[in-house]
């Protein structure tokens, strides 16, 4: 405050005016002069104290900002009083709080990005390593013909896996940045299931699994047909993979006043309680997941469904099977 | 980050034999940016809860902590100021001031605080609400849906820590209800606004991220439906 030029200017001005005034009054009558001098001195004191207090408040705010700047947690500086200073405190509090919240979010995002990158590299690395080995083996000119064919087949399989991974990741990132426009088509649920089942019928037959389906043809939902088929396909595929040969897959659909529900049950090994909360997370692999599992199919299903006012839930009992419910909420907004 | 915490909240009206327990030891907490729906049949205590959260009614026992401040530890004046700066309220019957025009109604919380209106912020809110053409109209020259949008604007002008809505669509037809709800959702998304909405309509509750069901003054269910 002492260094503040405007305060000095104000003090000097006031001092000059009061000295002139007091002297004039003193010359008229010395008693009045004493009274005037005393009054003005008291006024000066009041003025000084109030200014001091105001500057202290401002200094407190600037100390607070400095501590926030140096990374201290924000503290509550609001005092809920009337007046500009209190509004200022309130606003500064809001801004610092928003900023600290943003920085927490950024840190989380960064961590997530790093994790995702390491997951993706890991997923790409495994097939690449095995392809390197096989290419090396193929290099041997004395390799018998049937061995050669086997290795080439292996390499093709790995390439297919990488291709699937890359396309899925691309799709997921498109959904993430909301560049996918989901169409609103009125489709029958049965058609969705039928289309999703098409590529899965052969693997099911190979595993000798029984399929029961009870979906009314007239049950309609408003979704993007292609994307939703993909979502359902991933869920059923997951069920087939985790159900032993000779098991059962059942699909049923029903309508409630709030949503249309599709239930997909399998008689598979089930999901352990330690895995259950995470099965829809990207790159999460449960205890029972197969060697080729990447952990992206269910995550994608969830993303697709949630982007079009639908959602997916899973309940499971170890050794009994898994029940997956997809709810298509009736459009209200 | 936690923005609201309710600890052991109880509210009893009357005493002796005529005592009615509206809220019975309720506890929950809401994170910043959450969209919570509180549902329950009439008489379940949900409106009482909202009034206590908003600092309009006092609890018999228990604490309400909004943005790290226990609101019932403050004196009347401090609470009033806290309320107008940190809490936005939306009512079923709009509660707009009939002699003020739309712009004045929206900026009322600022004027009460004795501060200037930030034109950018006002324009932004008015645009989201779609009220550009109506700024100089009086409330009785507007439809119900428009009036409710004005009251949403009034709740948001001070960028409050939480917005509380008490049956915001209770007095509107289905078309206007849908508009108001989608508007609230949009504000929740774009401004990361914490939103607590009370309703008895399950369709509306399903739009939220989390549903808290209240029955006979107690929380009977608390489920997160979207993350």
Automatic annotation (TrEMBL), chain A:
Residues 119-332 form the Histidine kinase domain. It is found in: Membrane. It is an enzyme of class 2 (transferase). Keywords: ATP-binding, Kinase, Membrane, Nucleotide-binding, Phosphoprotein, Transferase, Transmembrane, Transmembrane helix, Two-component regulatory system. SUPFAM superfamilies: ATPase domain of HSP90 chaperone/DNA topoisomerase II/histidine kinase, Homodimeric domain of signal transducing histidine kinase. InterPro entries: BphY/WalK/GraS-like, HATPase_C_sf, HATPase_dom, His_kinase_dom, HisK_dim/P_dom, HisK_dim/P_sf, Sig_transdc_His_kin-like_C. It catalyses: ATP + protein L-histidine = ADP + protein N-phospho-L-histidine. Its main location: membrane. GO terms for cellular component: plasma membrane. Pfam families: HATPase_c, HisKA. The chain crosses the membrane at residues 7-28, 34-52. Signal peptide: none annotated. This is histidine kinase. It comes from Paenibacillus agilis.
TrEMBL record, chain B:
One of its GO terms (molecular function) is transmembrane transporter activity. Keywords: ATP-binding, Nucleotide-binding, Transport. Residues 4-227 form the ABC transporter domain. PROSITE patterns: ABC_TRANSPORTER_1 (PS00211), ABC_TRANSPORTER_2 (PS50893). The keyword Lipid metabolism does not apply. GO terms for cellular component: membrane protein complex. SUPFAM superfamilies: P-loop containing nucleoside triphosphate hydrolases. InterPro entries: AAA+_ATPase, ABC_transporter-like_ATP-bd, ABC_transporter-like_CS, MacB-like_ATP-bd, P-loop_NTPase. CDD domains: ABC_MJ0796_LolCDE_FtsE. Belongs to the ABC transporter superfamily. This is ABC transporter ATP-binding protein.
